[in-house]
Amino acid sequence: MRIGVLSLQGAFTEHIAMLRGLGVEGTEVRLPGQLKELDGLIIPGGESTAIGKLAVSYGLLEPLRQMGRKGWPIWGTCAGMIMLASDIGGDQPLLGLMDISVQRNAFGRQVDSFEMDLSVPALASIEPESQLVAFRAVFIRAPLIQRVGSGVEILARLDDDAIVAAREGNLLATAFHPELGSDVRFHKYFLAMVRER
């Protein structure tokens, strides 16, 4: 299995380290030709406007869209979730693959970053014995899902019902950074999506 991590900007090295820790080949992706022979792709956290502009400059936007439309599993974390969204209420380059509306920096600035335990029942599908174990999520200038389409499955919410993780078929989105913790269950969940394909 070969998972690409979009490596234009942001926390790509942490995702690659986590994949390698799970015995999976993680490879940096910066050019369209590097999308070939991938089984799935992770778009990491970082700065979504910078990632979008660089994706345009490197000719990646349309190839990434085609990948998603053809069923390749793609997971967006934080800024990656913004890139996957169909609507963010502003004008910047997006993939527009997922039927979700996202609010950027929903919790404030960098100093307002936080960690929180989340209930994520879907993770029991890959580790049934951990069903009652909360997922410790790291939120850094995090976005929030404001609206989901009818085909989108909500995976996690905050205590106030705000949506912070969702899946739509081959697409996975998390407002937080699983790669910055030690819990590998979300990475395993994504790898299970890749195997399903």
In a nutshell, what does this entry contain?
The chain is α/β, with parallel strands linked by helices and 197 residues long.
CATH class: Alpha Beta
Span between termini: 12 Å
Q: Unreliable stretches, pLDDT < 50, 5 or more residues?
A: none
* Number of distinct beta strands: 12
- Estimated helix fraction: 10-25%
H-E order: EHEEHHEHEEEEEEEEH
What fraction strand? 25-35%
Structural class: alpha/beta
Q: What spatial form do the alpha-carbon principal axes imply? A: globular
Number of domains: 1
CATH fold descriptor: Rossmann fold
Spatial extent as radius of gyration: 15 Å
CATH homologous superfamily assignment: Class I glutamine amidotransferase (GATase) domain
Number of discrete helical segments: 5
CATH architecture: 3-Layer(aba) Sandwich
Strand line-up across the major sheet: 2-1-3-4-12-11-10
What can be said about the biggest beta sheet? Answer: 7 strands, mixed
Mean pLDDT across the residues is 92
